[in-house]
Design a protein that fits this description.
The protein is built from 18 helices and nine strands. Helix 9 runs antiparallel to helix 10 and helix 10 packs across helix 11. This is Lytic murein transglycosylase.
């Protein structure tokens, strides 16, 4: 189970700086069983907003918040309908990997990343030494989240968090962030009246939630405060600290493009199968560019658009990306972009079979649910749970089990 916090918010696409929604909930509704396992919430979501605020304030004080700080925090809080509207807009994550990655990754963004790597070389060198997180990884998040700090969001953070905690879609994710925000405001790390960020409550250049700031905020520039909105050293080092806290393995690779043979057993692809790299090599899988990055590691074989499209091996660090963000297409794109920023070539797009449009994807997900698969709801987004169900059904039907849903599969079902 992924931890009940979300750590990225403002996704910017292409060279334009239009802030969009995070990928973090592409399949969040799939976790009904996990939600049932959560401890009871201290405050009931929904209902009258003023009553919810009063109950949340009381619960915060009961958990140890200073009564005056809690009262000040909730005093000016208002429900923000734009936050709810933003939360419901997830259409960009319905794009397939090739379209999505081409939309996010431009030459201008690569050039800017290289310039930022040079500008903050001392910071990245210290991070690589002390945290074991490669600069490409942080540069990719920095680029996608805020266009290297240019677009950090203008939503009032306190309003956003309380609005999402009140909304009954994911209160178990956001109510703890409200309590953390109160603590952060007590420490001077945010001002409930003036601090702004992404619509989901993340703050700063790499978009961190209050709980993560409390746990992993680092004063890397040594000025006595953690300033994630204005200090690149603080933001990048705090992001590295969070990745290490999430389980990042120091100095190891995360993703590598490969070439695959035509006769591979496609049912062994996907994140649910992990094998030593030597085993993949024995099956005819080879690195596309040079030697293996993790020859002594285990890895999964990913085919974001099936056996005729790009192919990658995903090392253990790749899984950490899902703790930061839960959308498969976002994670795959962020991990790939990190390799590009460190010199990897443009992937071989191949010639994938046509995929499904939104309406077709919803029909497929409904059909999979009718057959007993848990795909996290029929939302039109090809997340990891849907991919696993597709692969299982392909195998049953005697089709190449590469987890890529096609019109032919939909017709068979």
């Amino acid at each position: 189970m992924t931890r009940p916090t979300l750590t990225l918010a403002a996704l910017t696409l292409g060279a334009a700086t239009t802030a969009l929604t995070p990928a973090a909930w592409a399949q969040q509704d799939a976790t009904a069983a996990e939600t049932d396992a959560q401890p009871p919430l201290a405050v009931q979501c929904g209902g009258d907003f003023a009553s919810f605020k009063a109950a949340a304030e009381e619960a915060a004080v009961a958990q140890g918040a200073d009564p005056a700080a809690a009262a000040r925090f909730f005093d000016g809080i208002r429900r923000d309908p734009e936050v709810i509207a933003a939360d419901r807009r997830q259409g960009v994550f319905q794009l397939p990997f090739i379209d999505f990655s081409r939309r996010l990754i431009s030459q201008a963004r690569i050039d800017r990343g290289q310039a930022m790597s040079d500008k903050w070389d001392d910071v990245f060198t210290a991070i690589e030494r002390d945290y074991g997180v490669s600069r490409g990884v942080l540069l990719a998040f920095w680029a996608f989240e805020t266009d290297y700090g240019a677009v950090q969001g203008d939503f009032n953070t306190a309003n956003a968090l309380v609005t999402l905690a009140h909304d009954c879609r994911r209160p178990e994710l956001f109510l703890p962030q409200v309590f953390a925000a109160i603590e952060l405001s007590q420490q001077g790390g945010m001002d409930p009246d003036t601090t702004t960020g992404a619509w989901a409550g993340e703050i700063g250049m790499v978009q961190m939630l209050p709980e993560d700031i409390l746990d992993n905020g680092v004063d890397a520039d040594g000025n006595g405060t953690v300033e994630l909105k204005t200090s690149a050293p603080d933001a990048l080092t705090s992001g590295a600290a969070m990745l290490r806290d999430l389980g990042w393995r120091a100095g190891e690779p995360w993703l590598e493009e490969v070439e695959v043979p035509d006769d591979l057993d496609w049912s062994r692809t996907g994140l649910d199968t992990t094998l030593p790299v030597a085993d993949w090599e024995a099956m005819g899988v080879t690195p596309r560019d040079g030697d293996w990055d993790g020859a002594d590691l285990s890895a999964s074989l990913l085919l974001p658009q099936g056996r005729k499209g790009p192919a990658f091996v995903a090392y253990p660090n790749f899984i950490v990306y899902f703790e930061w963000n839960q959308s498969f297409v976002y994670v795959a794109t962020a991990a790939y972009f990190a390799t590009r920023l460190e010199g990897a070539p443009v992937y071989d797009a191949g010639n994938p079979d046509p995929g499904l449009g939104e309406a077709q994807m919803i029909r497929l997900q409904e059909a999979l649910q009718a057959r007993g698969y848990d795909v996290g709801g029929a939302d039109g987004i090809l997340g990891e749970m849907t991919r696993e169900a597709v692969q299982a059904e392909q195998e049953k039907l005697g089709l190449p089990a590469d987890a890529w849903p096609t019109p032919a599969l939909l017709d068979r079902m």
